[in-house]
Design a protein that fits this description.
single chain, Aspartate Aminotransferase, domain 2, Aspartate Aminotransferase, domain 1, 2 domains, 4-stranded antiparallel β-sheet, 37% helix, binds pyridoxal-5'-phosphate
Amino acid sequence: MNPPRTDARRHHDPDVRGFASDNYAGAHPEVLAALAVANGGHQVAYGEDAYTENLQQVIRSHFGPTAEAFPVFNGTGANVVALQAVTDRWGAVICAESAHINVDEGGAPERVGGIKLLTVPTPDGKLTPELIDREAYGWDDEHRAMPQVVSLAQATELGTVYTPDEIRAICEHAHAHGMKVHVDGSRLANAAATLNVPLRTFTNAVGVDLLSLGGTKNGALFGEAVVVLDPDGIRRMKHLRKLSMQLASKMRFVSVQLEALLARDLWLRNARHANEMAQRLAEGVRAVHGVEILYPVQANAVFARLPHEVGERLRKRFRFYFWDEAAGDVRWMCSFDTTEDDVDTFVAALKEEMARWA
Ligand SMILES: Cc1ncc(COP(=O)(O)O)c(C=O)c1O
């Protein structure tokens, strides 16, 4: 399936992997094969194609009969389109301070979506009804942006996972205040793999209104979807997607990737594997004296604190990011193609560097 390793167009070593991001991984071979199947001939552009139609069936098999998918190019786009669909011009979105929409989307929700974010500090990336209440007030106060949506990430930006009951409590609380609930599900598959339940168990079954469903980190080349779970009160998705520059003309190639992941069990296989590699990594790291794991490892990320100098030396050998450089905090991500050998080699290198430092 892979092209020969001597191919003159190959500009990287396909055997080298790091722990920087699940976005550093390539696409899963089954996704690439599905793209080839969808190629050839002509199909109607802008989403009226056979692959997008089929994707709707697949999405309904996961999320129930009212669900509708709107494929988009990327996760930031999914979030910006989804959040616009549930806010008025005067509306605001409550989210964790650490949320991707707040820290890693270049201000797109504010600048492109025109949405005020009301952020709440959290100990582990997870919102609770009590934390939401710090910003959920003042609906009649015209001096304040009106809280209309709670956006949570599943899995969170810090690699933690909400239980279905925790999401239910947030949805009940938000709905009681007339707010909708959006889930940034760029790693929804990883959360499902951890919880070992169907996707619907912690989304529409507990009251989530709409979500951004990830494909890229799960093995797609690119592509995500806004999934509207309860169409009641959700506005003009098609129009918002177009004006937000997220409408793919050759949409069949986005849809077929999501279909390849979700129609059978590829999404779950990939997510389970990434999570297992994170568990293996965490286990290895726990045995290294002087390195502290910062949050429960519940998806495919391990956050750790280690001496800054060790982090710097290790980064010369493997790719990964400092999360908070001053504190020495790092993030190590596993992906669908991380191998046991990658993890073991990395842990051995960490041990070596810690021993040099001690
Ligand atoms: C929680 C979360 N949401 C959304 C995204 C999507 O981002 P992008 O626009 O890079 O696809 C990411 C990517 O890192 C993420 O971690």
